[in-house]
């Protein structure tokens, strides 16, 4: 007798949205007077610019105090450090004003991914349409052949598409969720169920719609210690018992958003070029802008919750849940574009 295949329901994403809201609640909140200032866009960027200057100046001062002979022993390096500092400051101030004007006038309305446009682009190069590429990408991402050294173009292109879709978050709606979460802590306002619905149907509506066309489910993962700037999400593909290829595995793709052209905060992250000691986490030094998005500022905080730790815990729980449902292993991929690619490397190293 032929064995009947059991068709599973979609995995409930509510649990992972709760993990995400928990991550959101950890983002440091400014004092009330600073909160009122940052609601005015130009004042917000000015405050961020001043904070950036303070961080850069502190680094230079610390470098000098650590080695008072630095200007004499390494005059070229010292001069380059000072010159770089002033050049960055001179560039960023007018950039901050220009970006705010562009946002106000809605001059840059970037849409990183539209299937029709990408189909025209791939057709012009004699390639297959996006859905076909995604189907082939699925096979490669799910493969249990871990030792293949063959470069798979469909796999890479699928990761590129998902890295583009991650930009589709609605920042204005996210800010509203963040404010409601603060109210919710005082036992008022919306229930967590309502907040989850708003996250799914408003903040991440664009991402959810586009990835479902490609056969993935999406859940947000972490805001990386800041609001409406960088963040990470998970694309999930669960092996179904009714699928023909029973050798394939489940898939989790962790994708990091990169620099949005008009987001000044993300520009500052790019330009925060000092090195930070990350030996407690990745055995070396890394770009300070990247470090601050993942790890605690002091060693005393390492036992507490921080973005990288929460992300690993959530990914592990998603993988465990998938394995429990169908007994298949879970392939985990990490990707990102631009600044997101740099964050992906740091997270993978962790």
SSE blueprint and pairings:
Blueprint: H1 14-25, H2 32-37, H3 41-66, H4 70-73, H5 75-105, H6 115-124, H7 130-142, H8 153-165, H9 171-185, H10 192-203, H11 205-212, E1 217-222, E2 232-237, E3 250-256, H12 264-271, E4 275-277, E5 285-287, H13 288-294, H14 307-326, E6 330-336, H15 339-349
Parallel strand pairs: 3-6
Antiparallel strand pairs: 1-2, 2-3, 4-5
Domain Fungal lipase-type: 253-347
GO biological process, one term: lipid metabolic process
Pfam family, one: Lipase_3
Main attributes?
single chain, 6 strands, alpha+beta, globular, 350 residues
Structure characterization notes:
With about 350 residues, the protein is α+β, with helices and mostly antiparallel strands. It has one domain. Helices cover about 55% and strands about 10% of the residues. It contains 15 helices and 6 strands. The strands form 2 sheets. Strands 1-2-3-6 form a 4-stranded mixed beta sheet, with helices on both faces. Strands 4-5 form a two-stranded antiparallel ribbon. A hairpin with a 7-residue loop joins strand 4 and strand 5. It is globular and about 65 Å long. The termini are far apart.
Tell me the radius of gyration: 22 Å
* Helix fraction bin: 55-70%
Number of strands: 6
Strand order of the largest sheet: 1-2-3-6
Strand pairing plus helix content: what structural class?
Answer: alpha+beta
Instruction: Bin the strand percentage.
Output: 5-15%
**Average pLDDT number:** 81
Number of helices: 15
Q: Give the total of domains.
A: 1
Main sheet attributes: strand count, strand direction, barrel closure: 4 strands, mixed
Bulk shape: globular
N- to C-terminal distance: 49 Å
């Amino acid at each position: 007798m032929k064995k009947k295949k059991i068709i599973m329901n979609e995995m409930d994403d509510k649990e992972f949205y709760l993990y995400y809201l928990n991550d959101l609640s950890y983002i440091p909140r400014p004092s009330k007077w600073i909160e009122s200032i940052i609601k005015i866009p130009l004042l917000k960027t000015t405050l961020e610019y001043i904070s950036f200057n303070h961080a850069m100046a502190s680094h230079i001062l610390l470098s000098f105090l650590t080695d008072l002979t630095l200007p004499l022993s390494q005059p070229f390096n010292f001069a380059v450090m000072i010159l770089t500092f002033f050049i960055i400051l001179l560039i960023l101030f007018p950039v901050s004003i220009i970006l705010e004007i562009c946002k106000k006038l809605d001059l840059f309305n970037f849409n990183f991914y539209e299937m029709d446009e990408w189909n025209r682009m791939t057709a012009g190069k004699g390639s297959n349409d996006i859905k076909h590429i995604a189907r082939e990408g699925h096979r490669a991402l799910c493969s249990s052949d871990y030792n293949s050294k063959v470069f798979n173009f469909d796999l890479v292109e699928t990761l590129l598409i998902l890295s583009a879709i991650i930009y589709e978050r609605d920042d204005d709606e996210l800010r509203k969720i963040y404010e409601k979460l603060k109210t919710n802590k005082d036992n008022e306002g919306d229930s967590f169920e309502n907040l989850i619905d708003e996250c799914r149907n408003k903040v991440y509506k664009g991402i959810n719609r586009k990835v479902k066309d490609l056969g993935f489910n999406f859940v947000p993962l972490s805001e990386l210690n800041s609001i409406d700037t960088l963040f990470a999400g998970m694309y999930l593909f669960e092996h179904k018992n009714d699928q023909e290829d029973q050798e394939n595995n489940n898939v989790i793709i962790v994708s990091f958003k990169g620099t949005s052209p008009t987001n000044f905060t993300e520009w500052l992250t790019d330009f925060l070029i000092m090195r930070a000691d990350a030996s407690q986490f990745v055995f070396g030094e890394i770009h300070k802008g990247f470090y601050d998005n993942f790890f605690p500022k002091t060693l005393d905080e390492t036992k507490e919750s921080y973005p990288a730790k929460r992300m690993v815990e959530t990914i592990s729980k998603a993988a465990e849940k998938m394995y429990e449902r169908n007994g298949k292993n879970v392939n985990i991929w990490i990707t990102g574009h631009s600044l997101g690619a740099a964050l992906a490397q740091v997270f993978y190293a962790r």
